[in-house]
Every structure is written in C-alpha cells, then in structure tokens.
C-alpha cells in the first residue's frame, strides 16, 4: 500500500482518518466501525463492500 495514498484517503461516510491493517489487508474507520478491503493493492472505498466491525466492549 502506497504511503502517499494512505495520507489522502478518508472514510467516505464520516471523512475521518483510516487505520491501515496490513495483516487483514484493509483500511479501518474506527468511528464508523467499518473495514474497507484492499484488493490487488487498490482500496475499495465503497460502503457496500465494507465489513461491519463488532462493537467494542464497554
């Protein structure tokens, strides 16, 4: 994943910062609890393609 691309990508829902998770090959938006997949080094920034993350315990 290109570091320059990571600097400019934001969550399409809330426009917040994304966390790159190399092991899972995805970009995570913690506020929205969505994980966007990266396929063939291309981030798929579609809400319909995002994986819903489980709620964190309180």
Characterise the protein shown here:
With 58 residues, this protein is mainly beta. The chain has one domain (3-52): Single Sheet (N-terminal domain of TfIIb). It is 10% helix and 29% strand. The protein is built from 1 helix and 5 strands; from the N terminus they run αβββββ. The chain has one helix spanning 3-8; strands at residues 19-21, 26-29, 34-39, 42-43, 51-52. Strands 1, 2, 3, 4 and 5 form a 5-stranded antiparallel beta sheet that branches. A hairpin with a 4-residue loop joins strand 2 (26-29) and strand 3. The protein starts with a helix and ends in a 6-residue tail after the last strand. The model has no long low-confidence stretch (mean pLDDT 93).
């Amino acid at each position: 994943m290109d570091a320059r691309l990571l600097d400019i990508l934001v969550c399409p829902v809330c426009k917040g910062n994304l966390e790159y998770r190399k092991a899972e090959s995805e970009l995570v938006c913690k506020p929205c609890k969505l994980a966007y997949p990266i396929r063939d080094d291309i981030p798929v920034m579609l809400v319909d393609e995002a994986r819903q993350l489980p709620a964190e315990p309180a």
